[in-house]
Amino acid sequence: MLDFNPVDLIIAKRDGYALAPDDLRSLVEAYTQGSVPDYQMSAFLMAAYLRGLNERETLALTEQMLYSGIVLDLSHLPGIKVDKHSTGGVGDKVSLLLAPIVAACGVPVPMISGRGLSHTGGTLDKLEAIPGFRTDLSIDAYRHQLETLGVVMIGQTDEIAPADRMLYALRDVTGTVEFIPFIAASIMSKKLAAGIDALVLDVKCGRGAFMKTEEEARKLAETLVGLGEKFGKKTVAWITDMDAPLGYCIGNWPETAEAIRCLKGARVSDLMKVTYVLAGEMLSLGGVAESTIDGIRRAKEAVTSGKAFERFVQLVEAQGGDPTFLDNPEQREGAPPVDLVRAPDEAHGYVADLDPLQLGRVAAAMGAGRLRKGDAVDPTAGITLNKKPGDTVEAGEVLAWLHTRMTDDLPFFQQAVVQAFTYSDTPPVPALLLHDRYADGQWANQ
Fold first, then answer.
1. What is the chain's alpha carbon radius of gyration, rounded to the nearest angstrom?
2. Where residue 179 sits, what CATH number does that domain have?
3. CA distances from 185 to 57, 165, 182 (A)
4. What percentage of the chain has pLDDT greater than the value 70?
5. Secondary structure (3-state) at 388
6. Phi/psi at 34 (nearest 5 deg)?
7. What is the pTM for the complete model shown?
8. In terms of domains, do 150 and 228 share one?
9. Are residues 348 and 210 in the same domain?
């Protein structure tokens, strides 16, 4: 460390050279400890963003971020601990369904989640839309709840991967978020620190995702799975579609309410198809299912039997949430819509397309999202769709309902939602919801 000079590393990366793993580890360690200031780390982040990081550099970055804090040891707890991570999308409330479904089938689920940013929602915000629900459990409480209930859902603590927390905040304000090595290192450092044995990844692809193209999504999936395997964790990735919202609800409480209805048996085909495939993977990795297909069958049984909803109620109660609203989600204060959006005069035939990015931005503007980390959100704000691609439509029919406290801006929100829809005389070709699966260095469809 006596010869460590961050300027030398910034210049080397600026000029396109690969850094030695030890140098990269020293840089992250020094930044975490406060001896490298933000302006120097910002320069390095941009140099890396423009020049790239190779596989060895990405591994070294992940490793240093992982070991910047504590790495939980859950080996004393019975069972194979399996988590899931999504790269984020509009209407993606899958984690709220997956965790209780998988836990009800006997696989422990230690889930550390994040908050929403920009047009995508966050699992923590959705859980905290349940009055009283706490996601800030201590590490001891995290361990105890996993042992007694088999499922726990919290946010990143001060002890877990602090380098990631610091670097993410800096990336967010320096235009260096959408860079695969940084994304992968951020995701995997948190997940690996949580004490998991295996991980299922949902890599979103399309207009409503951070990875806009399938090529980008495949590269991210390969990087994530490769990192998981290098750290000895069985890791599987699915690329799933995000060219339309998942399910019918967008926003924290609207999405939570939809997840509750689905746990009670409501049929939301696209949402449940993704949920059951990911659940099947988790149950297979967790050793309670003979295959993914067998896991899907077990997951469906957990929902139809009521065991998954029962486990969700127990989860909510264990983390301080008020279970009253789980029986009647519509009774939550602020839940009813304040207005609706009707199809314009030119609407006819079928809904041909529905832009998830547009709807995600509208929901955020209505109060459901944040522009910066730390911004408050309105837990009940959002959009409930009445029409999706492939549905028939006529002028004047209801396209969606709006939930917001910002009633002065309703005409703007209504017009913005209308602009997300396009129409055609013939039904559109159904979207491919599940693009591909990656595990053990192999794509299923290649």
1. 22
2. 3.40.1030.10
3. 10, 12, 5
4. 96
5. coil
6. 95, 0
7. 0.92
8. yes
9. no
In a domain, 293, yes or no: yes
Q: Do 395 and 345 touch, CB atoms closer than 8 A?
A: yes
Burial of residue 38 (CB within 10 Å: 0-12, 13-18, 19+) is: middle
Query: CA separation (Å) from 251 to 69, 131, 248?
Result: 32, 15, 10
Residue 115 is among the residues annotated as catalytic for this protein:
no
Q: Mark whether 332 is an active-site residue.
A: no
Residue 16 to residue 52: CA distance in whole angstroms: 8
Per the annotation, the verdict on 164 as an active-site residue is yes
Average per-residue pLDDT for the chain: 93
pLDDT for position 1: 46
What's the domain range around 354?
335-424
* Residue 117: inside a domain: yes
| Residue 294 to residue 280: CA distance in whole angstroms | 7
Instruction: Give the sign of the dihedral formed by CA 390, CA 395, CA 397, CA 402.
Output: positive
Q: Rounded to 5, what percent of the chain is helix, strand, coil?
A: 45, 15, 40
Q: What is the CATH number of the domain that holds 38?
A: 1.20.970.10
Q: What angle do CA 138, 142, 144 make, to 5 degrees?
A: 115
Residue 68 falls inside a structural domain:
no
Answer yes or no: 186 catalytic. Answer: yes
Q: Quick one: 275 exposed, middle or buried, by C-beta within 10 A (0-12, 13-18, 19+)?
A: buried
Crossing angle for the helix pair 162-172 and 180-193, nearest 10 degrees? Answer: 150
> pLDDT tens for residues 253-296?
999 999 999 999 999 999 999 999 999 999 999 999 999 999 99
Residue 253 lies in a domain: yes
Tell me, what DSSP letter sits at residue 299? H
Q: Let me know whether 104 and 228 are in one domain.
A: yes
* SS3 category, 437: strand
Q: Which of 85, 126, 191, 207 is catalytic?
A: 85
Catalytic residue among 171, 204, 207, 311: 171
Which of the following is catalytic: 81, 143, 190, 218?
A: 190
One domain for residues 214 and 109 = yes
Torsion of CA 156, 158, 162, 168, to 10 degrees: 50
State how many domains the chain has: 3
**pLDDT at residue 202 tops 90:** yes
Query: Is 190 an annotated catalytic residue?
Result: yes
Strands 82-86 and 249-250: unpaired
Could you tell me if 90 and 224 lie in one domain? yes
DSSP for 359-372, written as a single string: HHHHHIIIIIS-SS
Which tokens sit at 199? 């991980």
Lowest mean pLDDT among 122-126, 184-188, 357-361: 122-126
